[in-house]
Amino acid sequence: MKIFMRKTVLVTGSAGLIGSESVRFFHRKDFDVVGIDNDSRSYFFGPSASTKWNRKLLQKKLKNYLHYSVDIRNEERINEIFKEHKPVLVIHTAAQPSHDWAAKEPLTDFTVNALGTHIMLEACRKITPDAVFIFTSTNKVYGDNPNRLPLKELKSRWEISKNHSFYIGIDETMSLDHCTHSIFGVSKTAADSMVQEYGRYFGLKTGVFRGGCLTGPAHSVAQLHGFLAYLVHAIANNIPYTIFGYKGKQVRDNMHSYDVVNAFYHFFQSPHPGEAYNLGGSRYSNISVLEAVPKIEKTLNKKAKIKYDPTNRIGDHIWYISDVSKFRKHYPKWNYTYNVDQILEELCLYSTPQGRDKFMYIT
Length: 363
Description:
By secondary structure, the chain is α/β, with parallel strands linked by helices. It has helices spanning about 15-30, 40-45, 50-60, 75-85, 100, 105-125, 185-200, 225-235, 255-270, 290-300, 325-330, 340-350, 355-360; strands spanning about 10, 30-35, 65-70, 90, 130-140, 150-155, 160, 205-210, 215, 240-245, 250-255, 275-280, 285-290, 305-310, 320. The mean pLDDT is about 95.
Protein backbone atom coordinates (compact mmCIF):
# COMPACT_ATOMS: atom_id res chain seq x y z
CA MET A 1 0.00 0.00 0.00
CA LYS A 2 1.49 3.34 -1.07
CA ILE A 3 1.51 5.99 1.66
CA PHE A 4 1.20 9.60 0.46
CA MET A 5 3.60 11.87 2.33
CA ARG A 6 2.68 15.55 2.35
CA LYS A 7 5.46 18.01 1.59
CA THR A 8 6.35 20.80 3.99
CA VAL A 9 7.50 24.32 3.21
CA LEU A 10 9.09 26.43 5.95
CA VAL A 11 8.54 30.19 5.64
CA THR A 12 10.28 32.78 7.81
CA GLY A 13 8.69 36.19 8.13
CA SER A 14 5.48 34.28 7.45
CA ALA A 15 3.12 37.09 8.48
CA GLY A 16 4.90 39.70 6.35
CA LEU A 17 4.21 40.67 2.76
CA ILE A 18 6.19 38.05 0.81
CA GLY A 19 6.09 35.52 3.63
CA SER A 20 2.30 35.47 3.91
CA GLU A 21 1.93 35.38 0.12
CA SER A 22 4.23 32.34 0.18
CA VAL A 23 2.14 30.72 2.90
CA ARG A 24 -1.07 31.17 0.93
CA PHE A 25 0.47 30.15 -2.40
CA PHE A 26 1.96 26.89 -1.17
CA HIS A 27 -1.04 26.07 1.01
CA ARG A 28 -3.11 26.20 -2.19
CA LYS A 29 -0.54 23.83 -3.71
CA ASP A 30 -1.41 21.34 -0.93
CA PHE A 31 1.77 21.77 1.10
CA ASP A 32 1.92 21.70 4.87
CA VAL A 33 3.18 25.16 5.77
CA VAL A 34 5.28 25.98 8.82
CA GLY A 35 5.66 29.68 9.55
CA ILE A 36 8.19 31.49 11.71
CA ASP A 37 7.44 35.10 12.63
CA ASN A 38 7.88 36.88 15.97
CA ASP A 39 6.40 40.21 14.80
CA SER A 40 9.73 42.03 14.92
CA ARG A 41 8.18 44.50 12.49
CA SER A 42 6.25 46.08 15.38
CA TYR A 43 9.58 46.61 17.18
CA PHE A 44 11.16 48.15 14.09
CA PHE A 45 8.29 50.42 13.05
CA GLY A 46 5.80 50.57 15.91
CA PRO A 47 2.43 48.94 16.67
CA SER A 48 0.76 50.24 13.50
CA ALA A 49 3.15 48.08 11.42
CA SER A 50 2.49 44.92 13.42
CA THR A 51 1.89 41.74 11.43
CA LYS A 52 -0.28 40.14 14.14
CA TRP A 53 -3.45 40.74 12.10
CA ASN A 54 -2.01 38.73 9.24
CA ARG A 55 -0.70 35.95 11.44
CA LYS A 56 -4.13 35.55 13.06
CA LEU A 57 -5.74 35.49 9.62
CA LEU A 58 -3.43 32.74 8.39
CA GLN A 59 -4.05 30.64 11.48
CA LYS A 60 -7.80 31.10 11.16
CA LYS A 61 -8.14 30.50 7.43
CA LEU A 62 -5.52 27.88 6.60
CA LYS A 63 -5.97 24.45 8.13
CA ASN A 64 -2.50 23.18 7.22
CA TYR A 65 -0.61 26.17 8.61
CA LEU A 66 1.44 25.92 11.80
CA HIS A 67 2.94 29.04 13.35
CA TYR A 68 6.02 29.53 15.54
CA SER A 69 6.77 32.87 17.21
CA VAL A 70 10.53 32.37 17.17
CA ASP A 71 13.48 34.70 16.56
CA ILE A 72 15.54 33.44 13.61
CA ARG A 73 18.68 34.19 15.64
CA ASN A 74 17.68 31.47 18.12
CA GLU A 75 19.82 28.67 16.69
CA GLU A 76 18.57 25.99 19.08
CA ARG A 77 14.90 26.57 18.32
CA ILE A 78 15.49 26.89 14.56
CA ASN A 79 17.29 23.54 14.56
CA GLU A 80 14.45 21.94 16.52
CA ILE A 81 11.89 23.19 13.97
CA PHE A 82 13.94 21.86 11.07
CA LYS A 83 14.32 18.47 12.77
CA GLU A 84 10.63 18.21 13.55
CA HIS A 85 9.25 19.21 10.14
CA LYS A 86 11.96 18.31 7.61
CA PRO A 87 10.95 20.91 4.98
CA VAL A 88 11.57 20.27 1.29
CA LEU A 89 11.51 24.02 0.69
CA VAL A 90 12.68 26.94 2.83
CA ILE A 91 11.57 30.47 1.92
CA HIS A 92 13.53 32.92 4.03
CA THR A 93 11.88 36.35 4.04
CA ALA A 94 12.41 37.41 7.66
CA ALA A 95 14.53 40.55 7.89
CA GLN A 96 15.02 44.04 9.20
CA PRO A 97 13.97 45.76 5.95
CA SER A 98 14.71 49.48 6.33
CA HIS A 99 18.00 51.27 5.61
CA ASP A 100 16.80 54.24 7.73
CA TRP A 101 16.06 52.03 10.74
CA ALA A 102 19.31 50.08 10.40
CA ALA A 103 21.33 53.19 11.24
CA LYS A 104 19.58 53.37 14.63
CA GLU A 105 20.63 49.86 15.69
CA PRO A 106 23.33 48.57 13.33
CA LEU A 107 24.09 45.51 15.44
CA THR A 108 20.44 44.44 15.57
CA ASP A 109 20.16 44.94 11.83
CA PHE A 110 23.25 42.86 11.10
CA THR A 111 22.43 40.01 13.46
CA VAL A 112 18.89 39.69 12.11
CA ASN A 113 19.79 39.95 8.43
CA ALA A 114 23.23 38.32 8.27
CA LEU A 115 23.51 36.05 11.32
CA GLY A 116 19.85 35.01 11.16
CA THR A 117 20.28 33.99 7.53
CA HIS A 118 23.45 32.07 8.34
CA ILE A 119 21.67 30.17 11.12
CA MET A 120 18.91 29.23 8.67
CA LEU A 121 21.47 28.06 6.10
CA GLU A 122 23.32 25.92 8.63
CA ALA A 123 20.11 24.29 9.80
CA CYS A 124 19.27 23.48 6.20
CA ARG A 125 22.76 22.15 5.46
CA LYS A 126 22.93 19.93 8.53
CA ILE A 127 19.33 18.72 8.74
CA THR A 128 17.66 18.99 5.31
CA PRO A 129 20.50 19.28 2.77
CA ASP A 130 18.25 18.26 -0.13
CA ALA A 131 15.78 21.10 0.50
CA VAL A 132 15.54 24.12 -1.79
CA PHE A 133 16.51 27.33 0.02
CA ILE A 134 15.15 30.64 -1.30
CA PHE A 135 16.40 33.96 0.05
CA THR A 136 14.69 37.32 -0.45
CA SER A 137 17.55 39.72 -0.95
CA THR A 138 17.27 43.32 -2.13
CA ASN A 139 18.43 45.69 -4.84
CA LYS A 140 20.20 47.59 -2.04
CA VAL A 141 23.08 45.11 -2.43
CA TYR A 142 24.15 47.32 -5.35
CA GLY A 143 24.45 50.28 -3.00
CA ASP A 144 24.30 53.64 -4.71
CA ASN A 145 26.02 52.38 -7.86
CA PRO A 146 22.74 52.80 -9.81
CA ASN A 147 22.92 56.53 -9.03
CA ARG A 148 26.11 56.76 -11.08
CA LEU A 149 24.28 55.91 -14.26
CA PRO A 150 23.89 58.80 -16.76
CA LEU A 151 20.38 59.73 -15.67
CA LYS A 152 18.48 62.63 -17.14
CA GLU A 153 15.69 64.61 -15.51
CA LEU A 154 12.30 64.56 -17.23
CA LYS A 155 9.05 66.23 -16.24
CA SER A 156 7.88 63.54 -13.84
CA ARG A 157 10.80 61.12 -13.47
CA TRP A 158 14.50 60.44 -13.82
CA GLU A 159 15.28 58.29 -16.81
CA ILE A 160 18.14 56.71 -18.70
CA SER A 161 18.85 56.85 -22.44
CA LYS A 162 17.30 54.14 -24.60
CA ASN A 163 20.76 53.52 -26.02
CA HIS A 164 22.23 52.60 -22.63
CA SER A 165 22.89 48.92 -21.88
CA PHE A 166 20.84 49.20 -18.68
CA TYR A 167 17.82 50.85 -20.31
CA ILE A 168 15.71 47.71 -20.00
CA GLY A 169 16.86 47.46 -16.40
CA ILE A 170 19.80 46.81 -14.12
CA ASP A 171 21.09 43.25 -14.40
CA GLU A 172 23.18 41.08 -12.09
CA THR A 173 26.48 42.28 -13.60
CA MET A 174 26.28 45.60 -11.76
CA SER A 175 29.05 45.79 -9.15
CA LEU A 176 28.29 45.34 -5.45
CA ASP A 177 31.56 47.11 -4.56
CA HIS A 178 32.99 50.65 -4.25
CA CYS A 179 29.73 52.28 -3.19
CA THR A 180 27.65 53.38 -0.21
CA HIS A 181 25.16 50.66 0.62
CA SER A 182 23.54 51.91 3.85
CA ILE A 183 23.97 49.73 6.93
CA PHE A 184 20.96 47.70 5.83
CA GLY A 185 22.46 47.19 2.39
CA VAL A 186 25.64 45.76 3.89
CA SER A 187 23.82 43.28 6.14
CA LYS A 188 21.73 42.06 3.22
CA THR A 189 24.80 41.86 0.97
CA ALA A 190 26.52 39.66 3.55
CA ALA A 191 23.51 37.36 3.66
CA ASP A 192 23.16 37.43 -0.13
CA SER A 193 26.77 36.33 -0.60
CA MET A 194 26.52 33.61 2.02
CA VAL A 195 23.39 32.12 0.44
CA GLN A 196 25.18 32.00 -2.91
CA GLU A 197 28.22 30.42 -1.27
CA TYR A 198 26.18 27.66 0.35
CA GLY A 199 24.96 26.80 -3.11
CA ARG A 200 28.33 26.99 -4.85
CA TYR A 201 30.56 25.61 -2.08
CA PHE A 202 28.31 23.17 -0.22
CA GLY A 203 26.03 22.30 -3.14
CA LEU A 204 22.78 23.35 -1.47
CA LYS A 205 19.90 24.24 -3.77
CA THR A 206 20.00 27.92 -2.90
CA GLY A 207 18.53 30.83 -4.83
CA VAL A 208 18.88 34.57 -4.22
CA PHE A 209 16.18 37.01 -5.34
CA ARG A 210 17.17 40.68 -5.28
CA GLY A 211 13.83 42.39 -5.02
CA GLY A 212 12.95 45.79 -6.38
CA CYS A 213 9.88 47.44 -4.89
CA LEU A 214 7.77 44.45 -3.83
CA THR A 215 4.24 45.21 -2.75
CA GLY A 216 0.73 43.89 -2.27
CA PRO A 217 -2.35 44.11 -0.05
CA ALA A 218 -0.80 42.05 2.76
CA HIS A 219 1.80 44.75 3.44
CA SER A 220 1.73 45.98 7.04
CA VAL A 221 2.63 49.50 6.00
CA ALA A 222 5.31 51.71 7.55
CA GLN A 223 6.78 55.04 6.46
CA LEU A 224 10.30 53.62 6.49
CA HIS A 225 9.51 50.57 4.38
CA GLY A 226 7.19 49.90 1.46
CA PHE A 227 6.98 53.09 -0.60
CA LEU A 228 3.93 52.36 -2.73
CA ALA A 229 1.76 50.68 -0.10
CA TYR A 230 2.49 53.43 2.42
CA LEU A 231 1.78 56.18 -0.11
CA VAL A 232 -1.64 54.64 -0.84
CA HIS A 233 -2.28 54.22 2.89
CA ALA A 234 -1.35 57.84 3.59
CA ILE A 235 -3.59 59.28 0.89
CA ALA A 236 -6.50 56.99 1.77
CA ASN A 237 -6.33 57.93 5.43
CA ASN A 238 -5.49 61.66 5.09
CA ILE A 239 -1.98 61.23 6.50
CA PRO A 240 0.72 63.68 5.34
CA TYR A 241 3.29 61.97 3.11
CA THR A 242 6.88 63.20 2.96
CA ILE A 243 8.92 62.84 -0.22
CA PHE A 244 12.64 62.67 0.53
CA GLY A 245 14.85 64.21 -2.13
CA TYR A 246 15.30 63.85 -5.89
CA LYS A 247 12.29 66.15 -6.50
CA GLY A 248 9.95 63.20 -6.07
CA LYS A 249 11.04 61.93 -9.46
CA GLN A 250 12.77 58.80 -8.16
CA VAL A 251 11.67 55.70 -10.05
CA ARG A 252 10.92 52.22 -8.70
CA ASP A 253 9.81 49.09 -10.48
CA ASN A 254 6.89 47.63 -8.58
CA MET A 255 6.13 43.93 -8.44
CA HIS A 256 3.13 42.22 -6.89
CA SER A 257 3.84 39.71 -4.14
CA TYR A 258 1.98 36.98 -6.03
CA ASP A 259 4.30 37.31 -9.01
CA VAL A 260 7.30 37.16 -6.65
CA VAL A 261 6.16 33.93 -5.01
CA ASN A 262 5.22 32.42 -8.34
CA ALA A 263 8.85 33.01 -9.36
CA PHE A 264 9.90 31.18 -6.20
CA TYR A 265 7.69 28.26 -7.23
CA HIS A 266 9.34 28.03 -10.63
CA PHE A 267 12.77 28.01 -8.99
CA PHE A 268 11.65 25.31 -6.55
CA GLN A 269 10.59 23.04 -9.38
CA SER A 270 13.96 23.32 -11.14
CA PRO A 271 16.58 25.02 -8.97
CA HIS A 272 19.81 26.57 -10.24
CA PRO A 273 22.00 26.28 -7.12
CA GLY A 274 23.81 29.41 -6.01
CA GLU A 275 22.22 31.71 -8.58
CA ALA A 276 21.23 35.32 -7.90
CA TYR A 277 18.37 36.96 -9.76
CA ASN A 278 17.18 40.55 -9.99
CA LEU A 279 13.43 40.50 -9.52
CA GLY A 280 11.13 43.48 -9.92
CA GLY A 281 8.50 45.02 -12.11
CA SER A 282 11.06 45.80 -14.85
CA ARG A 283 9.91 47.98 -17.76
CA TYR A 284 6.58 46.19 -17.47
CA SER A 285 5.65 47.82 -14.15
CA ASN A 286 7.42 50.93 -12.85
CA ILE A 287 6.53 54.40 -11.63
CA SER A 288 7.94 57.51 -9.95
CA VAL A 289 6.54 59.08 -6.79
CA LEU A 290 5.23 62.06 -8.76
CA GLU A 291 3.54 59.75 -11.24
CA ALA A 292 2.00 57.59 -8.51
CA VAL A 293 0.36 60.42 -6.54
CA PRO A 294 -2.22 61.55 -9.13
CA LYS A 295 -3.10 57.97 -10.05
CA ILE A 296 -3.86 57.19 -6.41
CA GLU A 297 -5.75 60.47 -5.93
CA LYS A 298 -7.95 59.67 -8.92
CA THR A 299 -8.67 56.10 -7.79
CA LEU A 300 -9.46 57.08 -4.20
CA ASN A 301 -11.05 60.42 -5.08
CA LYS A 302 -8.94 62.05 -2.40
CA LYS A 303 -6.30 64.77 -2.36
CA ALA A 304 -2.82 63.84 -1.11
CA LYS A 305 -1.15 65.84 1.65
CA ILE A 306 2.39 65.96 0.29
CA LYS A 307 5.42 67.42 2.05
CA TYR A 308 8.87 67.67 0.53
CA ASP A 309 12.22 67.25 2.26
CA PRO A 310 15.11 68.04 -0.13
CA THR A 311 17.45 65.74 1.80
CA ASN A 312 17.46 62.30 0.21
CA ARG A 313 17.95 59.16 2.26
CA ILE A 314 21.52 57.87 2.37
CA GLY A 315 22.07 55.16 -0.22
CA ASP A 316 18.62 55.69 -1.73
CA HIS A 317 18.24 55.01 -5.43
CA ILE A 318 17.31 57.78 -7.85
CA TRP A 319 16.26 55.31 -10.54
CA TYR A 320 15.98 51.56 -10.23
CA ILE A 321 14.39 49.23 -12.74
CA SER A 322 15.20 45.51 -12.65
CA ASP A 323 16.32 43.55 -15.68
CA VAL A 324 14.68 40.15 -15.17
CA SER A 325 16.12 38.65 -18.36
CA LYS A 326 18.28 36.13 -16.52
CA PHE A 327 15.34 34.72 -14.59
CA ARG A 328 13.19 34.67 -17.72
CA LYS A 329 15.92 32.77 -19.57
CA HIS A 330 16.09 30.13 -16.84
CA TYR A 331 12.30 29.99 -16.35
CA PRO A 332 10.57 30.97 -19.62
CA LYS A 333 7.13 29.81 -18.44
CA TRP A 334 7.01 32.43 -15.68
CA ASN A 335 5.30 35.75 -16.40
CA TYR A 336 3.76 38.77 -14.68
CA THR A 337 0.09 38.84 -13.76
CA TYR A 338 0.00 42.42 -12.36
CA ASN A 339 1.16 45.70 -13.91
CA VAL A 340 1.56 48.92 -11.93
CA ASP A 341 -2.00 50.14 -12.56
CA GLN A 342 -3.45 46.81 -11.39
CA ILE A 343 -1.21 46.92 -8.32
CA LEU A 344 -2.35 50.44 -7.46
CA GLU A 345 -5.99 49.54 -7.96
CA GLU A 346 -5.70 46.63 -5.56
CA LEU A 347 -3.74 48.62 -2.98
CA CYS A 348 -6.39 51.34 -3.08
CA LEU A 349 -9.19 48.79 -2.74
CA TYR A 350 -7.72 47.38 0.48
CA SER A 351 -6.25 50.61 1.92
CA THR A 352 -9.05 51.52 4.33
CA PRO A 353 -10.29 49.58 7.38
CA GLN A 354 -13.34 48.54 5.35
CA GLY A 355 -11.08 47.39 2.54
CA ARG A 356 -8.90 45.42 4.94
CA ASP A 357 -12.04 43.61 6.12
CA LYS A 358 -12.71 42.64 2.50
CA PHE A 359 -9.18 41.35 2.12
CA MET A 360 -9.50 39.26 5.28
CA TYR A 361 -12.78 37.83 3.99
CA ILE A 362 -11.52 36.74 0.57
CA THR A 363 -8.27 35.36 1.93
